[in-house]
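go over my protein:
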Amino acid sequence: MFALNRLSSAALRNARSAHTLPELPYQYEALEPIISRDIMCLHHQKHHQTYVTNLNAAEEKLKAALEKGDVSAQIALGPALRFNGGGHLNHSIFWQNLTPKTTEPSQPLCKAIKNSFGELTKMREVLTAAAIGVQGSGWAWLGYEPRTGCLRVAQCANQDPLEATTGLIPLFGIDVWEHAYYLQYKNVRADYVKAIFDIINWEDVSQRYSQAHDSC
C-alpha cells in the first residue's frame, strides 16, 4: 500500500507536459559499424517511441483513476507503468551512454572500478557475462550502490528500471532485447555485447558516477 501511495502522490504532482522522445546526441549512422543505421532508426523511432506513447497513456489512465478514487484501477496500471516507464528511462540513458567518439573513464571512476572489481578489464568481463546471460529480454547494468559506495553489476528483466527495482543508480546499461541487435548480429548476442564496449561514452558514464557519488 505504501508503494501505491507513493505512485499516486507522484502522479498527482505530475502536472507537467507529456513525456516526449528524446533526440539522439548523434546521427543514426554515427555508431556504424558497431550499430547500424537501420537498427538505430528502428530502435529509437519505433521501440522507444512506443514506450513513450504507452507511458503517457498509462499516466492519463492513472490520473483518471486517482480522481475517481478507484484503487483497483490504480493497481491494475502498475505493470504498464513499470514496463513503459522503465523502457523510457532505460533508453534515455542508453542513447547517452553511447558515442562515436573515443573517450576514457575519469580518474574517480577508474578508482571506483579498481576498488570494486580490481581492474577495468575485470569489470568488463563481469558486465559482459551478465549481459550475455540475461534470459530472454532485458538489460545488464553497471550501477552505483549508495549504501556502500561500490559499483555493482546487475541484470534487469524486460524493461525493469535499475534504480526502482534494485536501488542501484544506473551508470551504464547494455540493452539485450533482440531489437537492439538482431538485424545486424542475428542470434549472436555475444558479438554485439563485445562490440558495444567500443562505443561507450565514458564521459557520460563518468559524469553519472560523479553525480551519484556526490548525491549520497
